Amino acid sequence: DRYYQYNPQTPQIYHAAQNDNVDLNDGNYQLSLSENNLKAYGLALEKYFAVTPLIKGKVGINYLYATEIRDGEISGPLTMSNGDIATLSMRGGHTYSNSPWYFIEDKNDNVGHGLSLDFDISYELNEKHTLSLASKDLISSIYWKDQSYVNIVEFNATPVDNIAFTAPVTDFDRSFITKPSKDHYQELPRRLWLSHNFNNNDYQFSS
């Protein structure tokens, strides 16, 4: 699962970070990113039920074995001058397996274990029309023990000697706190779908 919330300039900054500042013109930029990413394998147990002959549903409980995580947010201003970074400031925090924003990678091969709940329900209005509500990860929690974590209290970078955007953070003057690990509970974004199904025997239509 991958979930992102960001402002319009953030993808432009990320593209520049991966391509040595290509297409990043001189000027001021604002970085704002919230992400909740997970790579996991799962086992699902589902139970179908009927409240009435017209109202039917399904409950699913999923066990999740997670191998990768990026959960957190960062924000701050960036100034480009003469094709190089003039100033860069960031605040935020991330629990991560790897993080392209900080140019750091987790080495402890941790895994997370968790559960999530799915719930679907449908109502047959008549022979032709059915209204359905489906949910994914309505309730979820994944536990990561001693997972790598970076807490940026204040990151202030003024690169010198033409340091590229992709340089390791150790090449910058900065004052941020990195915690080697912490226990972390990850909650997945809830997703809901409302749909209408029309069935006329000869053809079927959903919206």
List the helices and strands and how they pair.
Blueprint: E1 4-6, H1 9-18, E2 27-50, E3 55-81, E4 84-96, E5 98-99, E6 104-105, E7 112-124, E8 129-157, E9 175-186, E10 191-199, E11 204-206
Antiparallel strand pairs: 1-2, 2-3, 3-4, 3-7, 4-8, 5-6, 7-8, 8-9, 8-10, 10-11
Along the chain, the helix and strand elements come as EHEEEEEEEEEE
Low-confidence blocks of residues: 160-175
Mean pLDDT: 80
Q: What structural category do the secondary elements indicate?
A: mainly beta
How many E-type strands? Answer: 11
Counting DSSP H or I runs of 4 or more residues, the number of helices is 1
Account of the 3D structure:
The longest helix is centred in the N-terminal third of the chain and has 10 residues, at 9-18. The protein contains one helix and eleven strands, in the order βαββββββββββ. Residues 160-175 have low confidence and may be disordered. It starts with a strand and ends with a strand. It has 207 residues and is mainly beta. The strands form two sheets. Strands 1, 2, 3, 4, 7, 8, 9, 10 and 11 form a nine-stranded antiparallel beta sheet that branches. It has a two-stranded antiparallel sheet with strand order 5-6. It has one helix spanning 9-18; strands at 4-6, 27-50, 55-81, 84-96, 98-99, 104-105, 112-124, 129-157, 175-186, 191-199, 204-206.
